[in-house]
Amino acid sequence: MPQTSVVTSSTTVDAYAASAPFVCTWKEGGSGAAWVHVAGELDLASSPRLAQTLGEALLDARLVVLDLRELTFMDASGVHVIVDSAGDARQAEKRLVLVRGAANVDRVLTLVGACEQVEIVDLDPAESPARALLHLAGSLSASSAAVSSRLT
Q1: Terminus of the chain with fewer CB atoms < 10 Å: N or C?
Q2: pTM for the structure as a whole
Q3: CA terminus-to-terminus distance, the chain
């Protein structure tokens, strides 16, 4: 009877162990705004969780900020959820704004053309969600007409 042995590289095992789990939470920020925090890997398995979280936040707030700064990976299913949620927000006369993430996450958004369909802003990595929401609520309300006309 033939014997089969499987050899796993310790670097392969370490790579899987090092991948961060997907984290997706949201909190109210006052003044009709909400902050959605994501971290880890946004893929086919975790995209439904993001869709649910964004849906809940959009029910409660006029402005939803999706912070991508701690996202380590995103595939097309994640982009699909974000673009669909941005469209849902526009139809409800609300706003979904992305905080730009890592270069690899930003590259995926750019490659699929999502940058033309969602609002993306840059924030200081150390800026707190509460302070950023106040900043975004003020600065984005002034530019909403221009962005809306560009998106339609």
Answers
A1: N
A2: 0.76
A3: 67
Question: 128 or 111: whose pLDDT is higher?
Answer: 111
Contacts 24+ apart (CB under 8 A), 126-134: 129/27, 129/29, 129/35, 129/37, 129/65, 129/67, 130/29, 130/30, 130/35, 132/35, 132/65, 132/99, 133/29, 133/30, 133/31, 133/33, 133/35, 133/63, 133/65, 134/29, 134/31
How many helices (H) and strands (E) the chain has is answered by 5, 5
pLDDT in tens, 58-98: 999 999 999 999 999 999 999 999 999 999 999 999 999 99
Any idea which residue has 């369909």 for tokens? 117
CB-based contact 135:101 (threshold 8 Å): no
Domains of the chain: 20-151 (3.30.750.24)
Of residues 100 and 137, more confidence is placed in: 100
